Amino acid sequence: MDMLVSIGKALSGICCNRRKRLIRGRLVLMKKNVLDFNDFTASFLDGLHEFLGKRVSLHLISALHAHPTGNGFKGKVGKPAYLEDWITTGTLVIAGESTFKITFEWDDDIGIPGAFLIKNNHHSEFYLRTLTLENVPGQGDIHFVCNSWVYPAQKYKHDRVFFSNKAYLPSETPEPLLKYREEELENLRGDGRGELQEWDRVYDYAYYNDLGDPDKGPDYARPILGGSSEYPYPRRGRTGRPPSTSDPNTESRLNLAMSLNIYVPRDERFGHLKMADFLAYALKSIVQVLKPELESVFDRTPNEFDSFEDVFKIYEGGIKIPEGILKNITDNIPAEMLKEILRTDGEPLLKFPTPQVIKEDKFAWRTDEEFAREMLAGINPVMIRCLTEFPPTSKLDPKVYGEQNSTITKELLEMNLDGLTVDEAIKRKKLFILDYHDELYPYLRRINSTSTKTYASRTILFLQDVGILKPLAIELSLPHPDGDQYGAISKVYMPAEEGVENSIWQLAKAYVGVNDSGYHQLISHWLRTHATIEPFVIASNRQLSVLHPIHKLLHPHFRDTMNINAFARQILINAGGILEMTVFPSKYAMEMSSVIYKNWTFPDQALPADLLKRGMAVKDQTSPHGLRLLIEDYPYAVDGLEIWFAIKTWVNDYCSFYYKTDDKVSNDSELQSWWKEIKEVGHGDKKDSPWWPLMQTREDLIETCTIIIWIASALHAAINFGQYPYAGYNPNRPSLSRRFMPEKGTPEYDELVTNPDKAFLKTITAQFQTLLGISLIEILSRHSSDEVYLGQRDTANWTYDHEPLEAFEKFGRKLVEIEERIMRMNNDERLRNRVGPVKFPYTLLHATSESGLTAMGIPNSVSI
Fold first, then answer.
1. Is the residue at 133 inside a domain?
2. Cα-atom radius of gyration of the chain, to the nearest Å?
C-alpha cells in the first residue's frame, strides 16, 4: 500500500494541471466463432451489434482513489473505452487468439489502475485471456491475467471485474479495491438456489447423489455418497438439477446426448482448442457408439481370446468389424479419433497401439520379478507395505466376520528366505505385503453374486540382496459358505516354474492383479486424486480472491478437474457406466470407495508421511531429506521424494514472501474461511477428525499447500499416465475375473492342464470388456496438446512480485535436474527395478512430456 501511495503522489505531481493522458492497451481474446467454426450466426450478429454501437467496453478502476457508494467506498471508475476494429481484427489469429487495441483516457482521479470492469454488449461470449496496459506513468506495463469467458452483459446480475496481477493479503488490499474483492467472492459463491446455467460462475457443493438413475429401474439405483456416517464422501460441484421422479433425494440425470453439457462453472470447462476437449468427445463416443456396437458383436456371442496370439492381434493387426457396425461407428465417431482406433486402408479393423509392457518382450510380464517390480514402479506403487508382524492379522470385527487372520505359515515361507527365518526377515525389514484382504472381503459375497468371481488376497514378498522382490506366497480367501461368522476359507499358493502348478500360480497372480487393478482405478486414482481434490477447487474459488497469493499459487493445480470429474459422473462412474462394466466391484464400486474413504486422512497424503506409514521408509537424519527407503531401488519413492521436496521448497519460498510471521497466517480472514470450509463442508464428513492442520502457522500453510499440489500433479501423474503402457495389455493387469480357481476333477482343471493359456484367458477379463477398457484407458493415458506441466505456467506475467517469479524459475531448474537424474538412473543396470524384465524404464515422474501416449510428464492438475 505504501508503494501505491508514493507512486500516486508522483503521479499527482505529473498531473498537477489535471492534464489528461491516454493509456494504450492490448487485449487478447478468442472469439466464439474462432472456437466454433460452424457458428457463423454468432459471428454475423456480433458484427451487427458492433455496427449498431453495442460494443465491448472497459472501465479502469482506481487502486488509489475511492468514492463513497451505498455500501461503502469503492475505487473510482474511469470513462468507458472500447475495443477497436472488432470486425477486422481476428482475421489473422495466432492459436485462435486475437489481439485488440484499446485506448483509455486517464488522469490523476484514477491514478494507478488496479482492476477493470468489462461489459460485453455483443450477441455471443468470448474468452478473455489478458489485458496489458502499456507504459503507465510511474508504473510501466500493468498486466491483468483474466483467463475467463465473458458472456453478454444481460446474462450477469453484476458487472464482470478483473484485477491486476498484484497479489494482496485481505488486510493489505488497497481500500478502493477491497469492496470489489469481497463482492466478486460473493458472486462466485452464489445463493444456493436453482439450476445452474452454462454462463453461471457459481461454485457450490453437493453430495454424490447423481450416480444412480432410479427412473430406469431398481438395478440403476445407487446409494447417495456423502452426508452420512455410513457413506461418507468428499463433496462435488453443485449443478442444481431437479430430483429424479422415483427418488426425491437423487438428482435427475442428463441424457447421453447432453452429457458434455453437464454444469461446471464456465471457466472450469475444457477449452475448445485443447486436446482434452477432443478427448471428452472421444470418451462420449466410446460410450454412445463404440460400447453398444462392441457389445453386440463380442458380448452376446461367446467370443473369447483363445490364445495370447489372439490378444496380440488387437495391436499388430486388428480385429475385423462387420460392415453394418462399421458404418455406425464411422458416422458417429470423430475422424481424428478413428485414425487412432480404426484401420480402414483395406479391411476395416479395430486396432490399438502396442503397450510398452509387451513392446520388447511379449511374455516378460509373466515373470515373478516383473509381477513384483510393478508394485514398486507400475501404476499402483502406493499399496505395498513392510510386513511387521506374522502371521498378517486382520482388523475386521471377529464378531461379524469370524477369524480373518492369515493362514500362511512360517514353514511355507522359510523354504525361500535364503536361509533366514521369518522372524529374522521381519527384523531385518526384508518381508513385504500387498494386502487386499480387509478392504475387499466385506464385499465379496455381493461381488461374487454377479458375473464376477474373485477373492480377497494377501501377497507376501521377500527383498533379495540384489534389491529386487521375490513373491513367496499368495493367499486367496472367500467367505465361509455357512455364514460370515464362520470366518474365511483361505488357500495359499506358492511359486512354481513348470507344469500345472505353474499354471495355478499364474492364475493366483492374476487374481491379485484383478484386485490391484480395481483398487488402483477406484481408490488410488479416482478417490485419492480426482474426488478428494475437488473440494479444494470449489473452496479456493469461493473463499480466496484471485488477488490472494494462495489462490495464485494453487489455481494452476485445479485446471479442468471439475470438468473431468463432472464428465466422469455422467459416463464413467455412474450406474451402468464404463467403470462398473470393466472393474471387478461392478455395481458396488463407488459404494466401496465410500467405505474406504472412512480411513482417508489429509496429512497422510504427504509422500513422506505415506512412506513412513506403510513402513517403506524410516526416519534417518543421515539420509537425503531425513528419510531412508527400505527398498533403495523403489522408483516411485525415489523420484517422488525428489519431486515432493522440490515442490515443498518452492511453496516455502513463495509463502515466506507473503507471510513473514505466523500471525499473518492466523489473521488472514480469507485463508481461515477457506480452511474452515474445506474441513466443515468440502470434506464435511471428516470435520471432527483431529488430524486436520490447524492453519495457524506458516508450517501449517506450507505443508498443506505442498500436499494439495502433490496430489494434483505428481501423485495423479504417477497413478494415471502409465495406465495404457501397463494395462493396455489386459493379461498383465486384468480388471475382472469370471471364474474361481479350478479344482482337481473338474473340466476347468483338465483344461488348465491341457491348454493353460486358454484357461487363463477364460478366467480373466472377457473380450468385450477388454476392448472397452483398452479404449478407455488409451484416452485417459494421453497428454493434451496444450498441457501445462509442473514448473510451468500458462501465462508469463502471472504475478507482479519478482521474488516469487525468481523462486518459480528456481523450481523449474530443479525439476530439470530431477529429469536428468531420472534418465541417468534408468541407464544404471544395477537398478533393476527401474527397467525390469519388460525393458520399460520408469519415467512417470519425469516432469515434462510431449503430447500423446508417452508414459511421462506431470501435468499441473488432475486434468484427465
1. yes
2. 29
Q: What integer pLDDT is reported at residue 68 of this predicted model?
A: 85
Domain that holds residue 87: 2-182
- Give me the amino acid identity at 660: K
End-to-end CA distance of the chain: 41
Per DSSP, 287 falls in state I
Q: Exposure of 316 by Cβ count < 10 A (0-12 exposed, 13-18 middle, 19+ buried)? A: exposed
pTM: 0.94
Please give the DSSP secondary-structure letter assigned to residue 137. T
Which three three-digit cell numbers place residue 783?
A: 497428454
Q: What is the pLDDT of residue 20?
A: 75
Active site residue 530: yes
> Could you tell me if residue 147 is left (phi over 0), alpha (psi between -120 and 50 degrees) or otherwise beta?
left
Does residue 49 have an active-site annotation? no
Contacts by 620-625, CB closer than 8 A, 24 or more apart: none
Residue 724 lies in a domain: no
pLDDT of 596: 98
Output the nine-digit C-alpha cell for 480. Answer: 465361509
**Residue in 54, 247, 168, 87 with CA at minimum distance from that of residue 664:** 168
Tell me how far apart the alpha carbons of residues 335 and 840 are, in angstroms, rounded to a whole number: 31
For residue 69, give the C-alpha cell.
Answer: 457508494
Q: Around 219, how many Cα atoms within 13 Å sit in the side-chain half-sphere? A: 6
Regions of the chain where pLDDT drops below 50: 1-17, 35, 37-38, 51, 91-93, 275, 301
The 10 Å Cβ neighbour count of residue 220 is 18
The burial class, CB within 10 Å (0-12 / 13-18 / 19+), for 347 is: exposed
The single residue listed with the C-alpha cell 453495442 is 54
Angle (CA) 301-307-312 rounded to 5° is: 95
Cβ 563 vs Cβ 268: under 8 Å: yes
Q: Does any domain span residue 47?
A: yes
CA distance 440 to 454: 10
Catalytic residue among 143, 520, 530, 555: 530
* Amino acid (1-letter code) at residue 720: N
Omega into 391 within 30° of 0, i.e. cis? yes
Cell representation of residue 398: 471377529
CA–CA dist 701, 680 (Å, integer): 18
- Report the CATH number at residue 112: 2.60.60.20
Residues with Cβ within 8 Å of residue 97, at least 6 apart in sequence = 28, 29, 30, 129
Q: Which residue has the cell 492490448?
A: 26
Alpha-helix residue ranges (DSSP H) falling in 561-668: 561-571, 578-582, 589-597, 607-613, 635-658, 662-666
- The single residue of 120, 515, 541, 720 carrying the catalytic annotation is 720
Give the span between the Cα atoms of 779 and 797, in whole angstroms. 32
Burial of 3 (0-12, 13-18, 19+ CB in 10 A): exposed
Of 314, 523, 573, 864, the active-site residue reads: 864
Is 716 labeled as catalytic in the residue annotation?
A: yes
Closest CA to 293 of 346, 335, 341: 341
d(CA 373, CA 367): 10
Q: How far is CA 430 from CA 371, 637, 756, in A?
A: 17, 17, 33
Look at residue 329 in the predicted model and tell me its pLDDT.
63
Question: How many folded domains does the chain comprise?
Answer: 1
Per-position b or e across 606-631, b if 16+ CB within 10 A of its CB: bbbbbbeebbbbeeeeeeeeebebbb
396, 435 contact by CB (below 8 A): no
Containing 640, the helix (H) or strand (E) segment is helix 635-658
- Residue 256 CB contacts under 8 Å (≥ 6 apart), including other chains: 284, 287, 288, 570, 571
CA dihedral 776, 778, 781, 786 (to 10 degrees): -100
* Residues in contact with 539: Cβ distance below 8 Å, sequence separation at least 6, in sequence order: 674, 677, 678, 681, 682
Which is catalytic among the residues 123, 525, 551, 555? 525
pLDDT value of residue 292: 74
791 close to 815: Cβ distance less than 8 angstroms: yes
C-alpha cell at 189: 459463491
**738 within a domain of the structure (yes/no):** no
